[in-house]
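[job 4471] stage=fold_predict status=RUNNING
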Amino acid sequence: MLFAKDDMDAAGNAMAVKDPVEALDAQTFIIETLAALRGKIDAVIPQYRYLLEITEALHETIPEGILIREAQRALREKATDKTDAAALVVEQTALRLRAEEYSKLINEITGFGILMNSVTHMAEAGDLLKNDDLSAAVKTMRQVERTIGEDLGTLLTLMQRLAAVLSAPAPAQPIPEQFVLLREVLVMAARQKDMVRESAAAKPDETAAFEAKLLEFGNVCGPYIERAKLHTNPVILDTVKKPKKGEPAVVEPVNPLPPANLQRNLVAAQECLALAAAGAKAKDRTKSIENQKKAAEWLRHFVAEYALKFYVNQPGPSSSPAPSEDFKEDEDLLMLFMPGMVTGVKPPDGKQEWEVLGRRDRAALNENFARELPLEFRAILKDYYERLAK
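[job 4471] inference complete, writing structure tokens
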């Protein structure tokens, strides 16, 4: 863009002195520069769109997790006040079923096993309530609130790191091989996602035409799988236990990390792609599209896991600290997703409804989120949210 600006200035100066030849040459260079820039942008747009879809899906689903956590807190307070245990059992069971549905949805997006432990503890709390053991039930409910908060923190951290995947690293910053693999798989995942849409839009008699491309995607997974087998989970530093007065500090080693098995999502995606190719060859459109969608889900899980585990801190204009591996819950951050918290005006009668923000509020939110993105994408994001608001 800087070269294009210089050429524009040169063209303007040439036209001012009535030198058409020089002006034409400068405009030719402008076209060449912008064409080259357009080529670079076109190459990265599918990846940006792919990450944006995941981030938006997370942003839309996180509020439900917050509401479940708040509902569990309200039930705990009722149990503390020794409310009728039978009524609490009914409410706790309904909340557990609600959490199970939410867990299925959020794990379809990420594959992280979000809220699975919380659902187990919710069932335990329900059993304790049936046995009229309110004290133990309150303790278990408090544990549910804590685990849900940790899971929501993981999702918020993932959103931040997905937004930075395409950012350019510092010139002297080493990039780990895991992050390199993440970006390469991201390119393939974005292309495969586009092909799912193309397959769904194609006519039934065109299904066989996708076989070659599906086989190509499956073959590309092979080298990625071999590289992922060599990767290990990030090392977690030993924790230092806070000593009592007059006692030395004690370092508590963490439990040994389980085998990484980081290639599992790629292996599953490769198998689904093979089935999709077989379906396309047999002109079985339903089977082919179904397995393509499964492959897209496995690839999305791989991207999400690698983005969370192998995030590379990117330099940016913000002075805020980079996300740490150990999430510490920030109530203010979670409350931003509650209705009325941005505008300061809560919905009447406690109704959980969302309204379109004013132009000034939208601009503030867009600026905060866009600050984490490369410069060339900020205008695209701003235009997208303005259109979405209308």
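[job 4471] summary: The CA atoms of residues 56 and 159 lie 9 Å apart.
[job 4471] exit 0
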